[in-house]
């Protein structure tokens, strides 16, 4: 496809969202989720001949909605690089690629860290990332064709069968996926009291790494 560097002659494409976190000994932190650099995902406006920005495609053309295409309004986005503070001090940076699953996976991770018994300064990052995860598709998708499956929830097969059964009794349509299929999280942390740095990476997909020096 002439002019499209991310599409090869056979139609194959490369490139997608990624996430990285960095912390140094002084407590400086960054969480970044680069995304949106591949034009083949952007719908072309027929009357104009050029594509929308990757995130602008998430707006709606129906009037009167919170995400209606409007001059000066930023569209809803799935990108949520996150930082957690304790007493106003940054203690953890985290995030994940994954479209509409990002907020769901990250909330599960944050709760797993916040509610876990104190281990290694109170931040057991790897245990929280490794915990069985889930997502639901009950709301309209951010990307075309904006599909949805009301009442659906997808869990990893490592999820306690009693939890799966309880969800089904409550009316959820549960899909049991592979044992390591939900989440692409990575995270870094610094304990303000000790200065100890921690890092963890997701084993799912074998694409994440935690590196320190």
TrEMBL record:
<dbReference type="InterPro" id="IPR052896">
    <property type="entry name" value="GGT-like_enzyme"/>
</dbReference>
<dbReference type="InterPro" id="IPR029055">
    <property type="entry name" value="Ntn_hydrolases_N"/>
</dbReference>
<dbReference type="InterPro" id="IPR043137">
    <property type="entry name" value="GGT_ssub_C"/>
</dbReference>
<protein>
    <recommendedName>
        <fullName>Gamma-glutamyltransferase family protein</fullName>
    </recommendedName>
</protein>
<dbReference type="Pfam" id="PF01019">
    <property type="entry name" value="G_glu_transpept"/>
</dbReference>
């Amino acid at each position: 496809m002439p002019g499209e560097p991310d599409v090869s002659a056979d139609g194959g494409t490369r490139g997608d969202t990624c996430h990285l976190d960095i912390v140094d000994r002084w407590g400086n932190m960054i969480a970044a989720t680069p995304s949106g650099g591949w034009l083949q995902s952007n719908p072309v406006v027929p009357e104009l001949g050029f594509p929308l920005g990757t995130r602008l495609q998430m707006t709606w053309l129906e009037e009167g909605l919170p995400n209606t295409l409007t001059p000066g309004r930023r569209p809803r986005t799935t990108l949520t690089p996150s930082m957690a503070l304790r007493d106003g001090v940054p203690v953890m940076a985290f995030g994940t690629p994954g479209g509409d699953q990002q907020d769901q996976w990250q909330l599960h991770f944050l709760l797993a860290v916040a509610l876990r018994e104190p281990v290694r300064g109170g931040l057991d990052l790897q245990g929280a990332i490794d915990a069985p995860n889930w997502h639901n598709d009950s709301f309209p998708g951010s990307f075309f064709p904006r599909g949805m499956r009301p009442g659906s929830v997808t869990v990893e097969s490592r999820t306690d069968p009693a939890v799966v059964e309880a969800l089904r009794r409550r009316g959820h349509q549960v899909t049991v996926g592979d044992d390591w299929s939900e989440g692409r999280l990575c995270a870094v942390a610094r304990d303000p009291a000790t200065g100890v740095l921690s890092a963890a990476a997701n084993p799912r997909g074998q694409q994440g790494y935690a590196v320190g020096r």
